[in-house]
C-alpha cells in the first residue's frame, strides 16, 4: 500500500513536467521551422530567382500569419485549452512544411510558409499556458526561460543540422523530413497533453467563458505597461528575428568570409546564448525581484556586443562566435517581459496577456526581415555567385544599423516600466 502511494505521488509530481516538456518540444519544433530559411537562402534564391528583399518577404510570410494570430491564439487557449489547439497547430506546421518544399512555385512556397507561421503561433503561448496550468506560479520567469531554452535549442540544432542535411540531401528533401516529424509530434500532443489541473495552488487556472475573456482583454489593452514591455521585447528579439533567423548566416559568409559550415556554427552561438541566458535571467530576476533593472543592464551589454560584432573588423571565427554568444545571452533577458505581463494580468486570462505581448514582440521579424533585405538590395554592387546575390560588408553594416538603434531605444524604455518586484497579480487587470 505504501509503495502504491509513493508511486502515485511520484507520478503526480512528474506528470505536469512531462506535459509541459511536450509543449516545449512543440515550441522547439516550430522554432526549427522558423529559422530554416536562413540556412537555405542561396538555394531559395536559385530555385525561385529571388532578390534579397524577396527572400526576406518569403521568410516573413511566417510572421504575416504568426503575428496577428497571437491575440486570437491567447483567447482560444484561455477558452478551449491547449490540447486540441496544439495538435491542430502542429498538423498545420507539417502541411506548411510540405507545401514550402513542394517546388510548385513561389506562391505555393509562400502559402506553405504562411501555414507554418499560422501553426507556430500556438506554440509559445500554448507552452506557457501549460506552465500556468500545471506548474507553480512563483517560478514563472524561470519556467519561461526553460521553455525558451528548449525552443532555441531547435534553432541551434537547425543551424548546424540543417546545413549538413541541405548539403547532403538538398533543401527540399530536408524540409520533407521536417514535415514528417510534425506528424509524429502531433500524435504525441493529442495523446499526452491535458487541459485542466485540480491542484490547490492554481484555483483559477480553468477554462473561462468569452464574457470573462472580453473583460480581461479590455483590461490588457488599457494597460500601458503591457504595451511598453511588449515593445521592449520586440526590440530585444531583433537579435533573433532580424539577424540570426535569416540574415546572420549570409552576413557571416559574405561580409566576414567564413565558409557555409563555419557561418552556420557561429550563427548558432546566438541561439546558444539565448538557451543559456533565458533561464539564467528568469532565475536571476526571480531571485533579486528586480525585473526592470535587470533588463536595462543586460540590454546595455547587448548594445556593446553588437557594436563590437558589426563595426570592428578582423574578428576571428572564435571571437565572432563568442560575440554572437554574448549577443544572444544578453538579449535573452527579453524573457522577463513575459513575467512582467503575467504579473500585471489575472491568471484567468494569462494566455491572452502572454499572446498579446508576444504579438507585439513578433512585429520585429515581420517588419525588419524584409527591410534589411531591401537595404541590402539598395546597396548591392551587382555581384552574384551561382545565381544568388552577394552583398558587401559595407552593405551589411548599413542594413544592420537597426540592431544598435533598437537596443538603445529599449534601454530608454526600461526607465518607464513599473517594477513589479515579482508579485503575481491574481484577480484584476488594473
Tell me what the structure shows:
- The chain is mainly alpha-helical and 430 residues long.
- The protein has a single domain, classed as Up-down Bundle (Growth Hormone, Chain: A), CATH 1.20.1250.
- The protein is 79% helix and 1% strand.
- It has helices at 2-39, 41-48, 52-80, 82-100, 106-120, 123-134, 140-169, 171-192, 210-221, 224-254, 260-288, 291-311, 317-331, 336-343, 350-378, 393-399, 402-414, and strands at residues 384-385, 388-389.
- A hairpin with a 2-residue loop joins strand 1 (384-385) and strand 2.
- Helix 4 packs antiparallel against helix 6 (123-134), helix 10 (224-254) packs parallel to helix 15 and helix 15 (350-378) packs antiparallel against helix 16 (393-399).
- The protein is globular.
Concise overview:
The chain is mostly helical. The protein is built from 17 helices and two strands. The chain starts with a helix and ends in a 16-residue tail after the last helix.
Oligomer: single chain
Q: How many DSSP-defined strands?
A: 2
CATH class: Mainly Alpha
CATH level-two architecture: Up-down Bundle
Strand order of the largest sheet: 1-2
Q: Summarize model confidence as the mean pLDDT.
A: 83
Count of alpha/pi helices: 17
Overall body shape: globular
Task: Give the terminus-to-terminus CA distance.
Answer: 49 Å
Unreliable segments of 5+ consecutive residues: 1-10, 200-206, 426-430
* Number of separate structural domains: 1
- Sheet of most strands: 2 strands, antiparallel
As a whole number of angstroms, the C-alpha radius of gyration is 21 Å
Structural class, judged by helices and strands?
mainly alpha
- Classify the beta-strand content into a percent band: under 5%
CATH topology: Growth Hormone, Chain: A
Amino acid at each position: 500500500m505504501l509503495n502504491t502511494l509513493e508511486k502515485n505521488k511520484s507520478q503526480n509530481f512528474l506528470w505536469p513536467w512531462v506535459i509541459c516538456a511536450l509543449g516545449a518540444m512543440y515550441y522547439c519544433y516550430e522554432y526549427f521551422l522558423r529559422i530554416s530559411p536562413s540556412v537555405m537562402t542561396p538555394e531559395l534564391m536559385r530555385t525561385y530567382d529571388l532578390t534579397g528583399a524577396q527572400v526576406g518577404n518569403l521568410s516573413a510570410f511566417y510572421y504575416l500569419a504568426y503575428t496577428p494570430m497571437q491575440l486570437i491564439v491567447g483567447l482560444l487557449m484561455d477558452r478551449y485549452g491547449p490540447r486540441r489547439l496544439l495538435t491542430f497547430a502542429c498538423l498545420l506546421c507539417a502541411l506548411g512544411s510540405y507545401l514550402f518544399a513542394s517546388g510548385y512555385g513561389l506562391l505555393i512556397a509562400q502559402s506553405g510558409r504562411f501555414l507554418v507561421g499560422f501553426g507556430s503561433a500556438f506554440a509559445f503561448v500554448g507552452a506557457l499556458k501549460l506552465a500556468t496550468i500545471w506548474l507553480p506560479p512563483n517560478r514563472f520567469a524561470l519556467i519561461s526561460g526553460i521553455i525558451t531554452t528548449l525552443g532555441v535549442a531547435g534553432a541551434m540544432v537547425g543551424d548546424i543540422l540543417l546545413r549538413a542535411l541541405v548539403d547532403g540531401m538538398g533543401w527540399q528533401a530536408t524540409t520533407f523530413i521536417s514535415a514528417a516529424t510534425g506528424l509524429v509530434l502531433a500524435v504525441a500532443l493529442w495523446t499526452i497533453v491535458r487541459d485542466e489541473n485540480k491542484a490547490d495552488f492554481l484555483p483559477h487556472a480553468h477554462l473561462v467563458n468569452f464574457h470573462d475573456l472580453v473583460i480581461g482583454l479590455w483590461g490588457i489593452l488599457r494597460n500601458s505597461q503591457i504595451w511598453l514591455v511588449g515593445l521592449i521585447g520586440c526590440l530585444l528579439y531583433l537579435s533573433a528575428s532580424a539577424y540570426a533567423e535569416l540574415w546572420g548566416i549570409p552576413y557571416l559568409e559574405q561580409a566576414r568570409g567564413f565558409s557555409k559550415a563555419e557561418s552556420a556554427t557561429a550563427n548558432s552561438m546566438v541561439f546558444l546564448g539565448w538557451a543559456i541566458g533565458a533561464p539564467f535571467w528568469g532565475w536571476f530576476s526571480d531571485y533579486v525581484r528586480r525585473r526592470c533593472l535587470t533588463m536595462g543592464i543586460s540590454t546595455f551589454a547587448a548594445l556593446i556586443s553588437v557594436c563590437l560584432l558589426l563595426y570592428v573588423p578582423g574578428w576571428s571565427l572564435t571571437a565572432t562566435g563568442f560575440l554572437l554568444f554574448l549577443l544572444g545571452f544578453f538579449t535573452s533577458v527579453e524573457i522577463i517581459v513575459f513575467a512582467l505581463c503575467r504579473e500585471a494580468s489575472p491568471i484567468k486570462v494569462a494566455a491572452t496577456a502572454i499572446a498579446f505581448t508576444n504579438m507585439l514582440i513578433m512585429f520585429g521579424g515581420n517588419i525588419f526581415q524584409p527591410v534589411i533585405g531591401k537595404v541590402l538590395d539598395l546597396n548591392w554592387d551587382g555581384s552574384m555567385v551561382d545565381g544568388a546575390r552577394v552583398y558587401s560588408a559595407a552593405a551589411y553594416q548599413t542594413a544592420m544599423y537597426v540592431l544598435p538603434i533598437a537596443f538603445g531605444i529599449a534601454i530608454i524604455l526600461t526607465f518607464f516600466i513599473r517594477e513589479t518586484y515579482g508579485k503575481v497579480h491574481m484577480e484584476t487587470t488594473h
